[in-house]
Amino acid sequence: MKYLRQLKIAVLYPENGAGSALDRNNRIAVFLFAILPGLSPNFNSFILLGSMVWGLYCLATGSLALNLSKSDRLVAIGMSIYPLVMIASIFVNPPYSEELDWIFRLLPFFSVWLLLPRMRQSPDGRLVPLFILGAGIGMIITFLFSLLQIMFLMERAEAGTSNAALLGVIGILFGGIALLNVQSPKSVEQRIAILGYAAGLGCVLLSGTRSAWLVIPVHIVIFLWYFSKHSFHLSLRSLAITGSLLFAGIIALGSGQILHRIEALQENMASLERSDGEVTSLSARFALYKGAISAISKDPLTGYGPQNRMASVLAELPDSLRPQLTYSHVHNGFLTAGIDAGIFGIAALSLMLATPLIGAWRKEAGPGRDLAIALALLLVSSYVITGSFGIMFNQKALDPIFAYLVALICVDRGSTGFAPVVRN
C-alpha cells in the first residue's frame, strides 16, 4: 500500500517548476498507454490522438517549439514516408473507396513530430521507466482477464482486444518491456517486472498465437545482451528460482491451449496433403500469399491501393476459394504493403520498421542508449516476426503502439541513466 501511495505521487504530482502541468499530463498519458493495450486498445488510439491534438495546439500557439534534433527529424521523416506512400497509392489507384477513412488510419505515423516536443517537457529519464512499470502492471491485469476467459470456456483468450492474435502480439511485446524493470533497485518494481513478463507470456499462450511463440527465443537473446551490459539488483539464484517456478506455472496453465494449437496445426498440414479442397487457417494463408505474390508481380510499382487490396488478391485465386477468404489483409505485413503500394510500399514499410533502431543507435553512448536499443529490438522483432504470419499494421491498436514507442525511444539522451519510478 505504501508503494501504491508513492506511485500515485510519482504519476500525479511531479516536481514544481515551469512546464510541471504538461509534465504531469505526460506522465499520466504514458502510464495509461502502457497499461491499457491488452484491456482496451481503443483507449490507446484516443490517448495518441489527444496527445497529437494538444501537441499541435501548443506548437501553433508558440507554447512549445518544434526543436527536434537531426536524429529526431530523421526518425520522424522515416515514419512519415510510409503513410505518404500509402496515401499516394490511394489516389493513384481508382476506384476510390473510403479514402478519408484510410487516411485517418494513417495519422498515427505522423505523431512523432508532435509527441517528441511534448514529451521533452518532462525531465530526462522519467517517462521511459514509468512506461516500463505500466507495461508490467498492465500485463498482470490482462493475464488475469485472459485466464477468466479461458475458465469460462472461450477457445482462445482475447482479454479486452476482441482479437486473440492481437492479444498475442501485445503480450509478447509488453511482457518483454516489463522485464526490463528487473534493473530497478526497488524490490516492488523488480517483482512487477518478473510477474509482468510471466503474465505477458501467459497471455501469449492463452491466446494461442503461434507466431508470437516464435518471438520468445529472440527476446531471450535481447535480454541476455542487455543484462550482460548492465547489473541489476536481484540475485541470479533468486531470479532463476522465481523464473523457473513462474514458467512452470504458466506452461501448466496454458498446456491445454498449447496442445490444442499444435494439434490444429497438424490437422491443417494433414489437410494440405489430402488436397480435398478444405480451407483451413494454414491453406488460407498459402492461398493469400500466392494471390498476393501474383498480384504484385503484375503491378510492382504502384500496387493497387489499400482500398482495392483484397479484390486484387482474390482476383488471382480460383472462384471456388474466394467466398471462403473473408479477410482484410493477406496475413503478411510485407506482402500487404506490396499489394497496397508496390515495391515502394515494401520499401517504405521496411524503413519505418528501421526507425526505432535508427533513433536508438544514433544516441550518444551511455545507459540510455542501451535501454533505447533494447526497447527498439523488442519492438521491431515483435512486429516483424508476428507480422510475417499475421497482422502488422493498418490496425487500430498496433499502429498507435508502434508510433508511441518510437517517440519514447527517442525522448531521452543516451547518457541518461535508468532510475526507478518511485525514488524515495
Give the SSE map:
Blueprint: H1 2-12, H2 20-35, H3 41-61, H4 70-92, H5 99-105, H6 112-119, H7 127-151, H8 164-179, H9 187-207, H10 210-213, H11 215-229, H12 236-274, H13 281-298, H14 309-314, H15 333-361, H16 367-387, H17 398-411
Helix pairs in contact: 2-7, 3-6, 4-15, 6-17, 7-8, 7-9, 8-9, 8-16, 9-12, 11-16, 13-15, 15-16, 15-17, 16-17
Features:
424 residues; mainly alpha; globular; plasmid; ligase; membrane; transmembrane; transmembrane helix
Describe what this molecule looks like in 3D.
The chain contains 17 helices and no strands. It is mainly alpha-helical and 424 residues long. Helix 3 packs across helix 6 (112-119), helix 6 (112-119) crosses helix 17 and helix 7 (127-151) packs across helix 9 (187-207). The longest helix is centred in the middle third of the chain and has 39 residues, at 236-274. It is globular, with a radius of gyration of 22 Å. The mean pLDDT is 86.
Helical content band: 55-70%
Largest sheet: none
Estimate the global geometry from the Cα principal axes.
Answer: globular
Q: Ranges with pLDDT <50 over ≥5 residues?
A: none
SS-derived structural category: mainly alpha
Please tally the β strands and state the result.
0
Order of helices and strands: HHHHHHHHHHHHHHHHH
The number of helical runs is: 17
β-strand amount: under 5%
Radius of gyration: 22 Å
How far apart the termini lie comes to: 15 Å
**What number is the mean pLDDT?**
86
